[in-house]
Amino acid sequence: MLEKRKSIDEIMKTAVSEKDCLSQFPQFRHYQRNGLFVHLESGRGDKLSSDTKKCIQNLLKLNMEAPYGPEWPAEEKVKRREMVASEARYIFVHEIPNEDAIKESESVDKERKFTCYPIVGFVHYRFILEEEVPVLYVYELQLEPHVQGKGLGKFLMQLIEFIARKNKMGAVVLTVQKANLVAMDFYLHKLKYTVSAISPSRVDPLLGLEKSYEILCKAFYHEAQVVLEAS
């Protein structure tokens, strides 16, 4: 047990110490499909500029106020605290004008200039322990309406799964509001996630009826499957 605990601690320490998770996946720096041109940059919660914080807050409210309904005012306060935590990791999606601008990123100095383009989406994730299993937990995946439906969400989740595997996480875990039917369909049917064994509806069906959310997961290893995936 001590050796297992030591191994888990080492995995978590290595994962959280990574400064730029995108550095291992340069092919995911850009997305060019369906008339959409975007550049991805990584970030962390305790390094956000005031403009980036405002962008995150606005996009969260735009997409999540309706699914949360009357719970939103309280939930918004929670999310504002979560987004600036030191353990929060980000992938920011910057929309750029055309394909020619993407090609300019071959220069390191010019690549930095992509941060001046508007943020049209982001992923907020963390490396945490769930039932003593190291997991990558997706706190948020938010996209502006005009970039939805173009394959970008699937692209970002594929990247997230690569990051999880590279960092020896046992699974990707996330929470989805039951009222967000589009998101539920996206994760369960398109990406083949499952309702986790730790989701309220699996732990206690009666309790699950009272909760407005489900916890979904995709496990990569047998041990994580046994703990996190419902039978």
Based on CA atoms alone, the radius of gyration comes out at: 18 Å
Spatially, the strands of the biggest sheet line up as 1-2-3-4-5-6-8-7
Terminal-residue CA separation: 26 Å
Low-confidence stretches: none
Fraction in beta strands: 25-35%
Helicity, in percent?
40-55%
GO cellular component, one term: cytoplasm
InterPro entries: Acyl_CoA_acyltransferase (IPR016181), GNAT_dom (IPR000182), NAA40 (IPR039949)
GO molecular function: histone H2A acetyltransferase activity; histone H4 acetyltransferase activity; protein N-terminal-serine acetyltransferase activity
Keywords: Acyltransferase, Cytoplasm, Nucleus, Transferase
Could you characterize what this model shows?
The protein has 231 residues and is α+β, with helices and mostly antiparallel strands. 43% of the residues lie in helices and 26% in strands. The chain is built from 10 helices and 8 strands. An 8-stranded mixed sheet has the order 1-2-3-4-5-6-8-7, with helices on both faces. Strand 1 and strand 2 form a beta hairpin. Helix 2 runs antiparallel to helix 3. The longest helix has 19 residues. The protein is globular. The model has no long low-confidence stretch (mean pLDDT 92). Belongs to the acetyltransferase family. NAA40 subfamily. This is N-alpha-acetyltransferase 40. One of its GO terms (molecular function) is protein N-terminal-serine acetyltransferase activity. Pfam families: Acetyltransf_1. It catalyses: N-terminal L-seryl-[histone H4] + acetyl-CoA = N-terminal N(alpha)-acetyl-L-seryl-[histone H4] + CoA + H(+); N-terminal L-seryl-[histone H2A] + acetyl-CoA = N-terminal N(alpha)-acetyl-L-seryl-[histone H2A] + CoA + H(+).
